[in-house]
Amino acid sequence: xxxxxxxxxxxxxxxxxxxxxxxxxxxxxxxxxxxxxxxxxxxxxxxxxxxxxxxxxxxxxxxxxxxxxxxxxxxxxxxxxxxxxxxxxxxxx
Length: 93
Hints:
The chain is mainly α and 93 residues long. The chain has helices at 5-41, 44-63, 69-92.
């Protein structure tokens, strides 16, 4: 429990921020999972479109400081790495 009125106010504000950020975090996770699933399915063109959405969502979340910028960069890098790996065998055929 908060001791002072200021701490109580901060606690309420933190709760409001948490609610606002929850939707963005959830959307980010969903978009990343969709992109990974499309890459795994092997449809490179559809995966590129889905990846573009996921990267955009990650960038927006990082810009708003909802997730750390390095966290967003790491997730984007891993998705791009998966996409490049999936696209390479398709090019050689």
